[in-house]
Amino acid sequence: MIPFNKPFLTGKETENILQAHKNGQLAGNGPFTQRCQQWLEHKTGCQKALLTHSCTAALEMAALLLDLKAGDEVIMPSYTFVSTANAFVLRGAVPVFIDIRQDTLNIDETLIQAAITDKTRAICVVHYAGVACEMDTIMAIAEQHHLYVIEDAAQGIMSNYHGRPLGSIGHLAAFSFHETKNVIAGEGGALLINDSRFSERAEILWEKGTNRSSFFRGQVDKYTWVDIGSSFLPGELIAAFLWAQLACADEITTRRLHIWQSYHSAFSALEGTLRRPTIPESCLHNAHMYYLLLESLEARTAFIQYMKEAGIMTVFHYVPLHRSPAGLKYCRIHTALPVTDMLSRQLVRLPLWPGLETELPSIIKHVISFPFHKHAIQL
Ligand SMILES: *Cc1c(COP(=O)(O)O)cnc(C)c1O
Q: Given Cys at both, which of 95, 262, 264, 315 links 85, Cβ 3.0 to 4.6 Å?
């Protein structure tokens, strides 16, 4: 079986984990955490980075930092992972879903303006597949309406938009180091802060509502409970593992891009019977994902079965959040979402992980041998 995902190891992870133990600190915010955070700050140019347990936790911190109140609205796509919405619902806010673009499957920036009400507080964009949203337009709309922009950059590490790293553009941003992402720690994430008004409070929320970070810097004599907060920081073992991965982020991205490009070239002749990903000129992407858009739900179901019989795992996502039980309960849609409804039924993801190189010819051969035309005609 060729798995859909296989966590990549750089080979340095265990050495770093043993080093963390030698350092004598397994709790969070130790030397490896500091190193990872500095790397993220340096690489993205964000003002401040804080490691978290997950991207989900980083989004929850973002929602806390915005001081959202019950009934406040956050505009976002429905075509995303549950955490994009959940983080805000936990604060009593209401996600307002708008449709996505046909080409990138990112939030359709031309629909944002019409969805803004006097309750709108923020726009949460998702850089799907590590391909940037139209951030210039989105930031301009936000500025005009005094809204915050949060980048769900779970899939976006090492990508950029007009030369600017994803995660460095919105007021706040979140990365994921889940094992299915490009740079991994099993479970892990980071909050990136680009608006200095949030920096101090972010550290406090992160350290259980205490000013422990100021204490360690020698800025206060004793640390105490100063605000709401939680335990959002991962232990040093996770940070040690992550440090090995961050140190290889360039190599990981290059290898993924090579696989992505091999798929893309191999399937160019199929364009018309299916659609391949579109990468706008403004974006340098990180090859997080390779997907195909097939004729219909029926064609996709048959394709996944066909590939499975050949021993190749392919998967689809997402069930649009406005169609999910919790989405119906906690969120609202501004207007119908025809592009989301259509493309979420057509999209299928192919395996993509460093180490897949030797299997590529066989995967490509099987994809090409699928009777796409037969399925198109039957429907
Ligand atoms: C993976 C993902 C998340 C969640 O990341 P975790 O680190 O697992 O919490 C959130 N949003 C998007 C768009 C994702 O792809």
A: 95
